[in-house]
Amino acid sequence: MSLERFINQAISSWMSSEGPDSDIVLSSRIRLARNISKYKFPTLFSNEEAKAVVEDVVESVKNLELKELGELELLKMDELQPLQKRVLMEKHLISPHLAENSSFGACLLSQNEEVSIMINEEDHIRIQCLFPGFQITEALEMANQLDDSIEKNVDYAFDEKIGYLTSCPTNVGTGMRASVMMHLPGLILTQQMNRIIPAISQLGLVVRGIYGEGSEALGNIFQISNQITLGKSEEDIVEDLKSVVGQLISQERSAREALAKTSNIQLEDRVYRSYGILSNSRIIESKEAASCLSDVRLGIDMGYIKNISKNILNELMILTQPGFLQQYAGGPLRPNERDIRRASFIRERLNMEN
């Protein structure tokens, strides 16, 4: 395994594999925040402590009992170019915080890219497990196994009454963020999403864009995740999320059925217009590309388009991001140059399918 593979290969296993309910749920993720008790938190630690944290975490995973993961690859942030870090972020393998703010940060990646252990992000350790489709319980099981294995070698900052101690108070307790990435064009087209989002918030969950907090919901893709980390067990938090996501899946399918009954020809026309734009454009901005890709993916799921893989939305949403476009170009591109290259990539990918 090499850095070049993680950078140059656009498709992670969560993008290319089909999990349960994958027509609506693109991926499921568990992230656990942990700190090592003998060191100051990353907001206060010295450079020497930061280096020691990396060494301790790397040493602790050498004897991981999860043999199916294979050898984990260590990537140090200060050894990567800004463009390389951006590509890893666009693939959801590292967080924006680690990419932008951590001089002494690092990341351990599994070969299939389903497991990422970020070091010296906002906390000393961020364990991330990313599975295709609606597999949030399976992701939690994997994260807990990794967590238990690491804890055999380091002492976590933990309080008997509060739980795991974290740099940000909103993560104290379980230190867990459980999130599901969903494609919800039916609820957008039937104008139900604006009503649903406040209702979800009242249940202790939050709705965000494709790259989490502060990001935009491009291509009708939303992240649904827990807000509460204190006062509930990890299992209870996941069950609450599963209940809401299950309802959203049902509502999205109902919305698609309603569109097929009441606006079938209009919806089919919308799908093929978007397909035509993607197939023929010579220049396309990221928002328009995301919107058209969402329409095409909906058309595939509803049976209008039959000769294209349903994973094309996952793939091209990543492949046409600024970092990837510039990585393949071999250097920086101006916005207009990125729009030209984005259109070219999409045409080539669709031609491969045909």
TrEMBL record:
CDD domains, sorted: bacterial_phosphagen_kinase
Q: What class of enzyme is it?
A: transferase
Q: How is its activity regulated?
A: Appears to be allosterically activated by the binding of pArg-containing polypeptides to the pArg-binding pocket localized in the C-terminal domain of McsB.
**This protein's UniProt keywords:** Allosteric enzyme, ATP-binding, Kinase, Nucleotide-binding, Transferase
| UniProt domain Phosphagen kinase C-terminal: residue ranges | 24-255
Q: List the catalysed reactions.
A: L-arginyl-[protein] + ATP = N(omega)-phospho-L-arginyl-[protein] + ADP + H(+)
Q: Record's family?
A: Belongs to the ATP:guanido phosphotransferase family.
| Name the record gives this protein | Protein-arginine kinase
Which species is this record about?
Answer: Cytobacillus spartinae
Gene that this polypeptide is encoded by? mcsB
